[in-house]
Records
---
Amino acid sequence: MVLHPFVTDSSRTSVPGRLRLALLLGAFVALGPLTIDMYLPALPQISNELAASESLVQLTLTGTLAGLALGQLVIGPLSDAVGRRRPLFAGALLHLAASLLVLVAPNIEVLGVLRVLQGIGTAAGAVVAMAIVRDLYSGRDAANLFSRLMLVMGAAPVLAPTIGGLVLRVTDWRGVFVVLAAYALVLLPATWRALPETLPPSHRRSARIGATFRTYGSLLRDRVFVGLVLVAGFTMAALFGYVSGASFVYQEQFGLDQQIFGLVFGAGAVWLIAGTQFNPVLLRRFSPRQILSAGAVAGTLAGLVLIGAAATGAGGLVGLLVPMWAVLAAAGVMLPNAPAVALAQHGEAAGTAAALLGAVQFGVGAAVSPLVGALGNDALAMATVVAGGMVVALTVLAAVVRPWSLPDAGDEPEPVPASAPASTEHAQPAVDDIGVAGAAAVTARE
């Protein structure tokens, strides 16, 4: 195991291998999808018990996404100033408290506020995980690890509705939040015992508001970065259009019960995971920007087919599922590569850059989620939002990012300086270890 130079002697903790690091970071990132997806089978039940309209209940999902977006804008710069581990711990603690308070929420308004707080708590895992990856990797190496993260976090949408459905068989919708609270509780000791600090005091940035705004300003002046952030945001909007509408479309329009809905929804997440795990295979032959472009084209075409199937009813549920799964697979290919390309040139402010990326992703998702309900909460409404997100993502990619004009500098792993420290345990670094190249590249950039 190669010790990363960012890990101090006082911590006596070595950086985990790539696989273990992906599992650790994925556990924190998965808190977001679990919080979003696990209560989806209970939306109709919440609507009935709290005497709230379907659209109002869907706004609790919007509140979670808004909390995720706004929380990242604060937590990202904070992680650049105080390090990565403390914001992770604080986020898990806030999520735990909000989940327990849901158990006594008397109405939909209080539930909505608590869902916002849950979103803020999960924001720490979402943004800090990306920052840690950027602390250690860039280019293809970063895209590969993002793919592994997507595998771990992709398991959450597969399992979450099914777990939620099982919980609803033995208790009511509040029991879902008991499970979420238990998960957050497990994450607290993992923050300190298993995850090392990857940002030393010498590499931290000022926490002053002026410095933070200047950093955000410099990022917003980078046309390519802003374009890639929007591409990721509208891709996520397509996913959340599906998440927001699936419960009502599958259960009420097509008559699936809560357990079958969980299985069908999870099957869609399998295709999302398949896209993320096919990405490392593609990276052996193509650059991240090339794969991102191809995924955007494929996702847009599948989205247009999805609208046709929803409008005509051709094929029934199966006719709707096939193009939807194709959109999810295309999104799975796009999502690891967009942040890899966007963060490649911003290692000096990885937390802030990751925060802006994540905030736009979940902010656009929060804005788009109510559209499905506003358009009628049926298959055509869901298909329109999903396809619209992919169309806009492709348009921004072509008009703003212009990937064919980008240099290939960020696509290859960075060279190892001659002064890079050597491994003390292996002559040849293991495939699942953080090698000298990743560690030395960070030192060279700073």
---
Amino acid sequence: MPLLHAKITTAAALVALLVGCSTSPTGRNQFIMVSGSEMATLGNQSFAELKKEEKISKNKRTNAYVQCVTDALLTVTPPQPDFEKWEVVVFDSDQVNAFALPGGKIGVYTGLLDVAQTPDQLAAVVGHEIGHVMANHGGERVSSSLAANGALQVANIALGASGTDNQNMIMAGLGLGLNVGVLLPFSRTHESESDLIGLQLMNDAGFDPQQSVELWRNMAKASGGAPPEFFSSHPSHTTRIEDLQAAIQRLPPSTTNAPKCVRP
């Protein structure tokens, strides 16, 4: 083994020992090399770029509706250690999607409202995206990429200042393409974990957890010829529905009433 490669490998191993021990909200062991504050900085930078490139909805009713659902979920979301406030922006786009970034940045595309047809179904999506942040899936994915590439200067990472390769890697870790308007899927493990976290949040907020199943039935219809699960980083719609139905059976009855969010 070349001396330089050996030094990089040894350094990576030391970083892993010092930084790598973490546990997700579901109790899954995680490998994390990047601090929460660093991930929050990356999320804030990406969100600022996204707001420059994407059209922001000015429809007051749509914004009020999305904010109403999101606020109910955030009321039952545990405080996050690396930021104080969440920010919600509705993007005027036909994309059937939503996302949440480290630093508490939530984006919802208006096209999603054609598939998430009720407040409860929207809560399932937004709760799922909040779950990605709560479980630090971005930090986990960036850390795995950094370790694989021997990139140890974690403290100096910044978008646009770390080279094209690292920038691509960081953006992918956040769930975004280099063109930040392009959303990238997380792994099946991350997606399934966020489903469970989001289900718990929507139940705690008083939304109907059974509507998460209806949401994914709608998604299955909307996606038409979706690829088989083996070829996709997302769980198949069938697997997702089965897992959610099983988890719903284990949920305690909610003691909270969801707000009356008026769909535009």
---
Amino acid sequence: MYPRIFFSGDTSINVEFDNVISEKVNNQILEIAEIVASQHIIGIIDIVPAYREVTFVFNPLLINIEKFQEFLQKQVVNLPKNLNTKIGKIFDVPVLYNQTVGLDLLEVADYHNLSVEEIIKIHSDKEYRIYMLGFLPGFAYLGGLDSRLHTPRKDTPRLQIPAGSIAIGGEQTGCYPVESPGGWQIIGRTPLMMFNPNHPEIKLHAGDKMKFYSINESEYSRLSDISFNDYFAEEIMV
């Protein structure tokens, strides 16, 4: 029976919703997260929204966990079934789509019986919702991928995927913020430095949106190694 509340460790408690990827569920998750954050509850260390649940990390020495459980239960019971999507930021990210940096671009095109140009157009035409961050610092799991581009992950993951690689994994798309192993299909690369360990602030949040636009090699070189945070230094609200 969903939603349900349960402990996921000695210092964390979850609110879990239906086992689906949907904006409706994600809106409910973000609403619960926002309600708790707005209360500034002593002892809550972190709030981590995901696809179908939100995790609250707490200090057991500072919080009355029984009262917090009761508070969560009350919020869940009173949560509207249909919530309006909150308007967040839109990040319009430059991408070089070619077979040099798009290591699987041709393979993805062949898999779907589409041209490379069609793959690029379909992928860059969509606006993607950030459902959650995870796996790597700043790795945004993006929903809303056109069904024509749904592509299985690779049978054998690569040991090294370059930072900035734009990829497709099943029904999702995303960008590898740092060099990493991975099994998603690589179709392009952004020149932006998505994550800088010397300045680890991450601008992306669940509920924000990301869109990609195609650039050429000259633009790629011009933008190379510019920090994602610097590139989006201005607030871009819609």
---
Amino acid sequence: MANPVFSNSPVFGEDKRRGGGTVYAQSSTTYSTVDAATLDDLYAAPAATTRETGRLTYDDVIMKTGGLLALLVVVGAATWALAPGLWIAGAVVGLVLGLVNAFKREPSPVLITLYTVAQGVFLGGISAFYEAAYRGIVSQAVLGTVAVAASALFVFKSGKVRVTPKFTRWLVLAMVGYLVFSLLNVVLMIAGVGGGDFGPLRNGGLGILVGLFAVGLAAASFIVDFDAIKRGVEGGAPRKMAWAAAFGLIVTLVWLYLEILRILAIFRN
């Protein structure tokens, strides 16, 4: 998978529809003797739902994602109003916790929550900076982020784009290329080569094209993430994996928001 949050998971990282994944079964207790009345009651009882058996559901993912997103917004708003200068600390802590969570085999609700808080501090501070320089840019970036994420979900639900191994390989290669390009831009900025607010390779027309390419990658990453979540639900993954799914979606949302914010700032310049 392109998103390490999903690709390193023993649940989301394998395609169970092709027989490569793990089938999760709930433990049961076998009784040596069962009377006729008990058997009648068992047969008459309704089938257990996925929630009752402790398996992952879409509602679990939605609730966890919504909760983390609400926390992100609240922390971001507080940082914007009280201490926007803390955005650097939030960025560093968020990066470290993001890497730790991405490569953990089992999700940690505490670490995922702390990551969300750190990203809230980072986004709140950096958003305040952008808003001070370009009035109204944050609301535009939020609307753009919601529009792209919703469009990716619509495309996935429509079935017009299928997540095949070829599609996944293309996305991985494209994201690696984008990462190398971004690191090169940072190195040039540190070395003082070129100019501009976003580095020599992320300004003007080239910066807009690169930003649009990154937005496309984020949208494709959403589609792959949705497919991974679907396979987790259909494969009977444990309910605790909703934390991993929510974390992966938050990571992509943050990346998408920052890219759109940068594109809008380049247009303003």
